[in-house]
Each structure stands twice: as C-alpha cells, then as structure tokens.
From TrEMBL:
It comes from Rhodanobacter panaciterrae. Gene3D superfamilies: Outer membrane lipoprotein wza domain like, wza like domain. It is found in: Cell outer membrane. Coiled coil: none annotated. The keyword Transmembrane applies. PANTHER family: POLYSACCHARIDE EXPORT PROTEIN GFCE-RELATED. It is a multi-pass membrane protein. Signal peptide: none annotated. Residues 188-264, 272-358 form the SLBB domain. Its main location: membrane. This is Capsular polysaccharide biosynthesis protein.
C-alpha cells in the first residue's frame, strides 16, 4: 500500500511531481507575485476594471494630451452654457411669416353658388350632397362653368374667381350674386415624416394652419420621438426646432404658420443616446426624448453612484470624440464628494453621444487586484503544503 507521501505525489500535477521542477515552479510564482505587489505599491495605476485619472489627463501620461481637454464643472462654466443656449433662439423668419389669402390649385374642389339660379348652383339637383355639385379643378388648372366656359382658375384667390365668374355671367344674368367656396383641398399640403402616429399629408386650407395644429392632428409618438430634433424644411432651408422648449416658452408653436410645400421631419430617438458607465449601480444607455437631460438625471436613471466602489471626485462627462484630428475631446469633471456638487450636476446638460463615466475608488482597485491575486496565492500555499508533506 503506498505511503501518504506517495499518495500526495500522485495527486500533484505531473509538472510538480519532480522535486526540482516543484521548487522552480514555486520560485517563479513567488517572483510574479512580488513583481505585481511592488508595482502596485510603487504607485502604478494598473488595476482590474476601468478607471480614469485626472492627473494623467493633465500630465498626458497615458495618452496624447492634445486630444483631451479637462474642464472642471464650475458655476462659471454653467453660466457660459446658459448664455449659449439662450442665444440659440427660434429663427425670426418663421415667426415673421404671415399666411396669404388661399390660392386655388389643381385638385381643389369648388362649390359655386349663384343666388336665385339653382340650375347653375346645383346642376345635379338640390337633393344631392354638396360634394356631388362641386367642380373639380383639373390638372391643367382649369374648370368649366355654364355661360363662362373653360376658365383658368389655378393661381387665383377665391375673391379673384368670384369676380371673374360674376363678370362673365353679367352678360346672361342680371346682377348675378356669386359666391365661391372650397369644399375639397387637394393642391396645397404640408408633408410629414418620422415619429408621428399619422404621417398623411395635411392640407393647407383657407383657414391659416399653425404648427401646433399640424402636430395635434398628426399625433407625436412620444415613446420613440426626439422632441428636440424637429426639422421644418421651407424653400430649401432647414429650421431646427426644439418642441419641448417651444411649448414651454409661451406656446410659440401656435405662432408659427405653415405654408404650402413645408415639410416636417421628427427624428426617432434610437440614435440619440448618452452612455453611463463605470461605478454606477446600473450602467446603461439613455435615450433622449428632450434636450434637457441633466447630469443628475443621467446618474439617477443609472441608479446613482455605487456607494462602496465609486470615487466621488471621479465623475466625468466625455464629449466630442467624433473627430479628434480636428478638435480635442472635452472631459468635464465633477467633484461629487460634497452634496453641493449635485447642485452643479443638476444644471449641467448632458448631450447625445456623451459618455458619463464614474471611476473607482483606490480601495476598490486594491480589492479587485487582491481578488485576482487570491487564486495565485492559493496555488502557492497548496504547493508549499504538498512540499512539506513530501518532506515528512
């Protein structure tokens, strides 16, 4: 029956069964452990997990410092940001536009009344619906009317057409009393695309059409729409509108009139995201519905800073990484070690594409390093115990 020492030797891995190889292995493991511990104690910034050092950003130790600009979040910075936001107001050209009288076009349906002459007013019979007695403006912009003949009506206002028909009928009807109304609008429309529930084109009518009316009829998809990114295209020019800001600023959407040919595009928010990473409770991507997402809200949606692992003065907002060759990325730093810092965070606006990163505390990096070293130390301990048993 084999001795206990022999049984222990059989349990060892093949590379540890020879005493000389065993001692060499223990020696190598000890050297690796000593190197790792010495590196940490000498101030090396390596440790498991993600972290960022503001000192390294300033010194430029770990990256090209020309590609990063570190900016502390201070009351002065917030005041400058507010001034820039107020300067980006709505275009005066949109507010200055006033609708002109309705102009008849191809596709419109007109109802022409000649008082005391029902044969001219309702040729299909008075018992028919109004639409059955309407007169469609043909694709070439003309329509036919008794005693008047074919007349070019496209481009006329309602008053222009009323006077033209009255003048023609005067040769056949004494003092004709003529009235013209549009009962079907088909020539002038506003086009809609994007995150609307109903994207059918909306007609421009004789009653001026406002932006708020169009949005109310189309119905915004509030779950998928980016309310801060509405684009109104008019005469080849794009006007960018923040619907949330418009509705909160004296309902300016009611003061914006639309004109024929306008196009409204409301983008989806699936590409408008900010990313919260690092030592937070729930790292996540946050979709934008409005433009007023604050740093406090972003951290709050992620569950806040991890109270056991986060470093209070290592809250960063990384912005402007699209083209580092043209301009350096901006890294805004918040020192969140005091409650007063969250007053600043509540006024700092996060933008789409930003990365909010919370770094780990020093003790967190130390604990993570020890966690990875524990399997190594256990292997050394087991090897030493096996050596002791073999010798005794």
């Amino acid at each position: 029956m084999p001795s206990q020492s022999a049984r222990l030797l059989l349990l060892c891995p093949p590379f540890l069964r020879e005493p000389s190889e065993f001692y060499q292995t223990v020696k190598k493991l000890s050297v690796l452990t000593a190197i790792a511990l010495a590196s940490l104690l000498n101030g090396c910034m390596w440790a498991p997990g993600q972290h960022m050092s503001s000192n390294s950003l300033v010194r430029g130790d770990s990256a090209d410092n020309s590609q990063v600009e570190l900016i502390p979040i201070t009351p002065k910075l917030l005041a400058m940001n507010r001034a820039g936001a107020q300067a980006a107001a709505i275009s005066p050209a949109l507010l200055a536009y006033q609708p002109e009288p309705y102009v008849i076009g191809a596709g419109d349906t007109l109802y022409i009344t000649v008082w005391d002459h029902p044969e001219l007013t309702s040729p299909a019979g008075p018992q028919q619906q109004t639409l059955a007695n309407g007169r469609l403006v043909r694709s070439d912009g003309t329509l036919f009317y008794p005693y008047v003949g074919s007349i070019k009506v496209a481009g006329m206002t309602i008053e222009d057409l009323r006077q033209a028909i009255s003048s023609k009928l005067a040769a056949y009807v004494e003092k004709p009393q003529v009235d013209v109304s549009v009962i079907g609008y088909g020539s002038q429309r506003v086009l809609l695309q994007g995150a609307f529930v109903k994207t059918d084109p909306q007609p421009i009518t004789a009653v001026p059409l406002t932006l708020s009316q169009v949005l109310g009829t189309a119905t915004i998809n509030t779950e998928q729409a980016n309310l801060s990114g509405l684009v109104l295209t008019r005469d080849g020019h794009d006007y960018h509108l923040d619907l949330d800001a418009l509705n909160g600023d004296k309902s300016l959407a009611q003061d914006i009139y639309l004109k024929p040919g306008d196009r409204l595009f409301l983008p989806y928010n699936d590409r408008q995201e900010a990313y919260v990473m690092g030592e937070v409770m729930r790292p996540m991507a946050i979709s934008f519905k409005t433009a007023d997402l604050t740093l406090t809200q972003a951290l709050g949606r992620a569950g806040g800073l991890n109270p056991t692992t986060a470093k209070g003065n290592a809250v960063y907002v990384i912005r402007g990484m699209e083209d580092l060759e043209q301009a350096p990325a901006k890294v805004f730093q918040l020192d969140a070690q005091s409650p007063a810092a969250f007053a600043l965070a509540d006024q700092f606006m996060v933008k789409p594409g930003d990365v909010v990163f919370v770094g780990p505390a020093g003790v967190t990096r130390w604990n993570r390093l020890l966690t990875q070293l524990l399997p190594l130390s256990g292997l050394i301990s087991n090897a030493a115990s096996a050596n002791y048993n073999l010798g005794h």
